[in-house]
Design a protein that fits this description.
This protein is α+β, with helices and mostly antiparallel strands. The protein has one domain (29-132, 140-183): minor pseudopilin epsh fold. The protein has helices at residues 29-80, 125-128; strands at 6-7, 10-11, 84-88, 92-99, 102-104, 113-115, 121-123, 145-147, 156-161, 166-171, 177-183. Strands 3, 4, 5, 6 and 8 form a five-stranded antiparallel β-sheet that branches. The chain has a four-stranded antiparallel β-sheet with strand order 7-9-10-11. A two-stranded antiparallel ribbon has the order 1-2. The protein starts with 5 loop residues before the first strand and ends in an 11-residue tail after the last strand.
Length: 194
């Protein structure tokens, strides 16, 4: 006895499609090409839009991180009742504490500087000016941003940028820090004023 497949009491081998012909059974080559071209165009548009969308949050995340670090340092200055001074360079923020009227590096080495993410740099009014900055002696570093023991800060506008985007941190006297003016793409003239 052989096994046979039956459909509606008829052997499956005897069933033939009656309503479909060869031309109606699939897609034509032109229809497939049109669909592939449409998918390619949509993918290209999404890729270009996502590229600029992904870079802006990265610099905003770094700006938020720096703002949080500044708030933490201000809290430390208030709790310890020791003013903190920041020397801002393009790639780091050097941290100093005021002791006996002198700016000194903190004792634990990990508290001495804030490092930036790869490809990110800081833009300060001094890095954008064309005037030469006089060198300070090693005993008294240049303090760009003062964090007082009373919770006040030096008003300051700090630019944070990567190759495509620039954001600004606006720091007010009361210790408020706000991220503003995130622009993309970067202007060609990097000597624009803060």
């Amino acid at each position: 006895m052989t096994n046979r497949l039956y459909l509606n009491d008829k052997p499956a081998s005897t069933l033939r499609p009656t309503s479909l012909t060869w031309q109606q059974a699939g897609f034509t080559l032109i229809e497939l090409l049109v669909v592939i071209v449409i998918i390619g165009i949509v993918t290209t548009l999404i890729t270009f839009n996502m590229g600029s969308w992904l870079t802006t949050p990265a610099i905003q995340t770094e700006a938020k991180r720096i703002a949080n670090e500044l708030h933490t340092l201000l809290d430390q200055a208030v709790v310890r009742q020791v003013p903190i001074g920041l020397n801002i360079k393009t790639d780091t923020i050097q941290i100093y504490q005021q002791q006996a009227g002198q700016w000194q590096l903190p004792k634990p080495p990990q508290l001495r500087k804030l490092l930036l993410a790869d490809g990110v740099r800081l833009v300060t009014p001094t890095t954008q000016s064309s005037k030469p900055v006089p060198k300070k002696t090693k005993q008294q570093p240049t303090i760009d941003l003062y964090l007082g023991a009373d919770g006040r800060m030096t008003p300051y506008r700090l630019g944070i940028e990567d190759s495509q985007t620039r954001c600004y941190l606006r720091i007010n006297r009361a210790g408020g820090i706000k991220i503003t003016d995130c622009t993309s793409p970067m202007p060609n003239n990097t000597n624009a004023s803060l």
